[in-house]
Amino acid sequence: MRFTAEVKVMLKEGISDPQGQTIERALPALGYEGVGEVRVGKRIELKLDAGDIDEARAKVEDMCNRLLANPVIESFQVEVS
Amino acid sequence: MRFTAEVKVMLKEGISDPQGQTIERALPALGYEGVGEVRVGKRIELKLDAGDIDEARAKVEDMCNRLLANPVIESFQVEVS
């Protein structure tokens, strides 16, 4: 069966996020006040073959640990449908 | 009130996604077969002040058009809670 996976990769809490900080500093100059805690991560969509949804999820989590994310500084969430 | 927003920014269909293609080519070498249509985008989390949820959503969509996304080549989705 063919599954669709959505992977969200974000920097772990406590890891400095320069991209988010830059956006946060730029927003007031554009007239947006009261915006904070900006965090920037990755979002990956893919399709894959697997026997069932649990196998698909396990396969994608494995891919995250090995290629899609850096488990030292990033956390990831996998949604399969 | 304080709202949390999640922004998904993906390249529009038809726009070449070299990051996704690179991942797609790397996966078979790591032993993952049957994976395709890999697309890589951005995911932005932020908190903001607004009068109500509609105002919050409108404000974030406006930020996307002006700063967070490039509307020429990227599409975005905003979820506010």
Task: Provide keyphrases for this structure.
alpha+beta, 81 residues, Mth169, Chain: A, 35% helix, homodimer
Mind explaining what this structure looks like?
Two copies of one chain form a homodimer. The first copy, chain A, is of the alpha+beta class and 81 residues long. The first copy, chain A, has a single domain, classed as Phosphoribosylformylglycinamidine synthase subunit PurS (Mth169, Chain: A), CATH 3.30.1280.10. Helices cover 35% and strands 40% of the residues of chain A. Chain A has two helices and three strands, in the order βαβαβ. Chain A has helices spanning 18-29, 53-68; strands spanning 2-11, 35-49, 74-80. The first copy, chain A, is elongated, with a radius of gyration of 16 Å. The A-B interface holds A 8-10, 20, 23-24, 26-27, 30, 32-50, 59, 63, 66-68 and B 8-10, 20, 23-24, 26-27, 30, 32-50, 59, 63, 66-68. Strand 2 (35-49) of chain A pairs antiparallel with strand 2 of chain B.
Strand and helix layout:
The structure is a homodimer of 81-residue chains.
Chain A: E1 2-11, H1 18-29, E2 35-49, H2 53-68, E3 74-80
Antiparallel strand pairs in A: 1-2, 1-3
The main β sheet of chain A shows up as: 3 strands, antiparallel
Q: Which fold name fills CATH's third level, the topology of chain A? A: Mth169, Chain: A
Q: Pairing-aware structural class of the strands and helices of chain A?
A: alpha+beta
Backbone CA Rg of chain A: 16 Å
Question: Treating each run of at least 4 consecutive H or I residues as one helix, how many helices of chain A?
Answer: 2
What best-fitting shape of chain A do the alpha-carbon axes yield? Answer: elongated
CATH H level of chain A: which superfamily?
Answer: Phosphoribosylformylglycinamidine synthase subunit PurS
